[in-house]
Write a structure and sequence with these properties.
By secondary structure, the protein is mainly α. It has one domain. About 80% of the residues lie in helices and about 5% in strands. The chain contains one helix and two strands. Strands 1-2 form a two-stranded antiparallel ribbon. The N and C termini lie far apart (about 165 Å).
Length: about 120
């Protein structure tokens, strides 16, 4: 009869594989933990950067709206000043015409009659 085929290693051989397997498993666990920690840190930094970009864009939008309001107000003020200046120039011209006409004509006082 032939001896049966041994399916398992002898215990002393198996003991040499056990510390290697534990070391490999521990190294994989540490590498996985470090990878997970770095991934979480990277995600945190990305969220932080996105929040900073949103805040910056919001501040930029707010500042641009305030700038546009100030420009519109200044333009409206300038337009109003130009209209007022035109109106004052027209009034000054009308006053010059009336003054010239009054200086040219004789004054009429209805109660005293015509004066030369």
């Amino acid at each position: 009869m032939t001896p049966p085929i041994q399916q398992f290693r002898r215990p002393e051989e198996a003991m040499t594989v056990y510390p290697i397997a534990v070391t490999v498993f521990a190294a994989l666990a540490v590498a996985g933990g470090v990878t997970w920690w770095r991934l979480r840190r990277l995600q945190h930094l990305i969220r932080k950067e996105r929040a900073a970009v949103r805040l910056t864009e919001g501040a930029h939008h707010r500042d641009m709206e305030a700038f546009k309001r100030r420009i519109r107000a200044a333009a409206a003020e300038q337009k109003a000043a130009a209209a007022l200046f035109d109106e004052l120039a027209l009034l000054a011209e009308a006053e010059d015409i009336v003054t010239a006409e009054l200086a040219r004509t004789t004054h009429h006082n209805p109660q005293e009659g015509d004066t030369p």
